């Protein structure tokens, strides 16, 4: 009887511990159209966060979202090994901002934010002019962010 009670307590504790630890913190990347810079940042952030076992995930949003990712973004991310088949820009909402651990914007502003931290990555080169240059700048920012999060 006591063994069953102890076993039950351990099972409940394990379930609770797993649920507590499994809820990852969210990073929201926002650019004007949600179709180029923020999806690239999201792709690289999620890849690196997973590789470094960080309890974070990212989503991309737009302040004035396009109906789809730009062709340059789709082609570039495909060459880089990312599958964007079901990716679609979405409008950033107050809910996105409020539940985010960090909101990172690319040359745009979002409604007054209550995220833990607001970061601006302004001046990123245009994806349509040169995907590789823009991607490298974004990836460098993401790598720096990952290093910072690893220390938290």
TrEMBL record:
The keyword Transport does not apply. InterPro entries: Ptyr_pPase, Ptyr_pPase_sf. PANTHER family: ARSENATE REDUCTASE. GO terms for biological process: response to arsenic-containing substance. This is Phosphotyrosine protein phosphatase I domain-containing protein. It comes from Algibacter marinivivus. The lineage of its organism: Bacteria, Pseudomonadati, Bacteroidota, Flavobacteriia, Flavobacteriales. Residues 25-148 form the Phosphotyrosine protein phosphatase I domain. The keyword Hydrolase does not apply. Pfam families: LMWPc. Keywords: Arsenical resistance. It comes from the Bacteria.
